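Action item from last week, closing it out:
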Amino acid sequence: MDRQTATATFPSAAAAVADARRFVRKVLADWGLDEVADDAVLATSELATNAIAYAGTSFEVSCRLAGGDVEIEVRDRHPTRGIEMPGVTASSGRGLPSIARLADSWGVSYDRRTKGVWFRLPRPGATGAAAPAEGAAADGTEAAFTADIAGSGSVRGELGARARDAAEPVRDASGAGGQGREGELAGGAGELPVAGDRLLRSPAAVEAMEDGVATAREVLGAEGAAVLLTERDGRLIMGSAAGTAAEMPLGELSVASLTPAARAGSAWVAADTSDPTAAALRASSLAAAPLESQGRLTGLIVAVSSLSGRFDEADGARLGRLADEMSLSLEKARVGELERSWRGWLSFVAEASDLLAGTLDQERTMALVAQLVVPRLATWCAVYTVTEAEPDRLAYVWHADEERSDGLRELLEHAGAAPPTDAPGAWNGLATAPEDVRAAVGDTATDQVYAFPLIARGRRIGTIVIGRPAGDRFPRSAIELAEELSRRAALAVDNARLFSAQTAMSSALQRSLLPPGIPEIPGLEVAVVYEPAGEGSEVGGDFYDVFASGTRPGGPAPASRWRFAIGDVCGTGPEAAAVTGLARHALRILAAEDLSVPAVLARLNRLILGEGERGRLLTLLHGEIAARRRRDGVTIKLTSAGHPPPLVLDPEGGVREAASPQPLLGVFDGVEFHTDTVELRRGEVLLCVTDGVTERRSGNRLLGDGHGLERLLADCTGLSAGAVAARIQRAVRDFGPEPSNDDVALIVLRAS
């Protein structure tokens, strides 16, 4: 791959959007630019979606390294259609406002045949590259960041409006109260700050804390210094430490145990170990100052000494000024990490949507939903489905620890029914399970659980239930993302359910259009093959039949004549199925009236023409089989109405056509048909196929090109009828790399 440029072309298909995302992510990973991958993937996803939804053409994605920037362009083949802008010109869909939020710069270029939209992202570490979070943090708020997300035109617009709430801390009833400084730490410790784990995930925050610790030791001449960060439950954890502070483990310390000065947002000095912070750090004296973020306590910066009374009020004031500077740096890093995290989540939701849209199997869809949730959002997940016959059925269970899955399933089966609510919320159904079942699963019985309804097309079709251990609280962002995922999963599950119902109905209809069985014909081996195209969601237009016609069913004498037919109705679906049913049943009824083969085709032609607009063109090969007097084969009188000609294979390997072409049915009235006679002697084979065989495609070649079917049949010399049918069927399957897009039907008659 070229180090500077990589290009790929994708078709105009929904699956191509996911392929384009994977291409961009791989290119950036190969170039060592993973830090900009999430932004690049999201922007590419929207532009690729525009190319398919609005241009309706194939599109090309190009990645380039341009100086200090990464430039990506999506170019489609429809330059005359304007670019849709949600909220400006488009009534729905994705547009370019979100590209403006994500990219450093962007634009549109045209040539005679194509239109391209490009965007540029700053390369990590490039001179002048500014973190998007700086603007948001400059005024000490996240409003700019969340407003940008909310204004974008894609899934970011759906989730971004919630980012404000997600950025807020989860209030915990266990948090302690305190006297707050007016206008700043309003509510004191009751307003618990953002969890410190986000800062620990940010390289910029870690660097800022390490620099602050080193500066505090130098300015105050302290033996050690540390930055303590707050958690959602009010505990303080070690963020960074140096000197003696790094050598001693942090004891139990929480916001509730801090001094009134700390809760008021002021720096303080402690002369001995009576101070809780000094005791937790095993220091004889300390100077400390709070780190604040939007009026909430983020943490503390402390300097410690093994000597009592080592620090004075001036040291506290100096540390307070250092804390103010560090608070701003940590806030920038925190907002940057928040934005990076949300972009990662949004990329996850977009890719999850493609995965869910990529399957129409109901069981697989539910399994995919559970495995998307675990372990990213929850420790375990269960999916319930609702039908008219079964109000709430536990359909799938998945646990991060596979050994616990069986116990979890048993617990859920004995627990209360999934909540039939229309809104997400906490669920305490596990508490209703019998004590012996709860005891068998251990701590899982006390997990905290949330339930999310699966609502599609205005009705509830199921419920997703997720759980985490009791001590591992669900962050608000995880709950909101699970809610978003449940909405997308509901539509995917409902689509899979509808597809399954349609497939079952189509399969039943298809079976009704095929003969119930093949009769035994003395002196003749009969083999048939029928393979509908696609996944069974539509009824095919091909059909076949073999039946007795010499006597009426139930007559006293055995049959002396038999009929066979193989046909192909133009098109698929209900309209084709109607003509298929008409043709097959009419053939049997007319043959029972002892009409000749040409007379049957003439009557059937008039019947199809009488259907008017509902009629369809029909190619048909119809013949009558009669035993020869010497019993050395059979005589076949047949008519080929627009159908691929039947082939006869003799025992020496010669192949010849056995019928002359005649007009197909459903076009002209008053057509007169005639028969061709085939004396099929012992060892000879008659092969009748539909165009799904002769027109099987491999690139620009067809199986029937250049007498391909004749050569294939010639290789079947000496085989039984069943073996000939199997070899032709296998050859059709193996001819092209892609599955056939046409039905395949064939009849093999071999005189024995």
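Closing note: Residues 82-95, 127-193 have pLDDT under 50 and may be disordered.
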